[in-house]
Amino acid sequence: METIRDLSHAARDWLRKVRKAGRELFMIDHAIAAAMKLPVVTALGAVCRAPRGSRTKILREAIRSIRRPAPPRTAEVCEINSLADFNSGYARLAAILGHAGKTPPPGEVEFLDSIMKRRRTWHPGTVGPSDYFFLTAFVSILAPQHVIEIGTLTGFSAGLIAAALLRQDGTDGASWVDTIDINVECAIDRTRPTGFEISETFPELVPLIRLHAPRDATFVWQIAKRDELGVIFIDADHRHPMPLLDLLRVAPCVRSEGWILLHDIQWGTIGRKAAETGQTPPWPASYGAEWLFDQWPFRKISGGNIGAVQLPHEKSALLPFALRMMSIQFEVVRRQARATRRALYESLGALC
Description:
Order of helices and strands: HHHHEHHHEHEEEHEHEHEHHEEHH
CATH class of the largest domain: Alpha Beta
Largest sheet: 8 strands, mixed
Number of helices: 15
């Protein structure tokens, strides 16, 4: 029996090698990738895979994506590069967001000043000072009751969001953060659990933070209702089109004209420049978040390497944009690329 099993396994492995060699010889994967870059092919795929009842609308938006693509919108800029600039940057961002005159609550600047003392180690991949100044100000100004984060990593940014909510809503549990990550073990340190900084750096904020791992962005549907949320923060897989997929998956749960924060919107350019000067960045250069932000055709605000994009009033208006983004060469490859494309097609139907 073992001999027969060994022979069957050997035959299976040989067939896999032959199949792989054939795909490489005839460049099948390259041909498929090239075809998928054609807007017409992407649009037809979206219509064919759309749920019943939404195909007509997706077809109409697909035609629009080909005939009259909306140009990228120029971003409003509000960078907060130092703690000394926080108050003025806060005021400027408040005016942009329609809350002119709002000022930081008591203790906010002092909390931000204490972060360097709170953290034992600065972990790669987490938000830097100018990023967390912007993130804190943004959440503080809008003061939502419930914020969801996609991509926990160490939990540092979840702690920052919770701290901003706490100073707006108090300690009565009226506001909280749900943070979601696909990994149980932290991606940058497999010996530590995902979110380990929540209890280590922000122990007083633990009651305000709910960690969900292993989960992906589809889990949002289990912890939020349609059109419930005003703010979501996406900081997960930055390879194109993963940020787009995360955004499309959570968009139905975000209110019309709600905001989605994106981290590392300059990461591809930063990584390329580092490589050109002989440096080795801590993460491979990925353009997913950067392309998503740069090509966004609706209102958006840049805070440097972090930014925010506003959903349109009619979320179905995202369809032409999403289809055009799906025509850009994926940074994920092979089986993951095929699975991601299927997931993107599925997510489009929820926008109708």
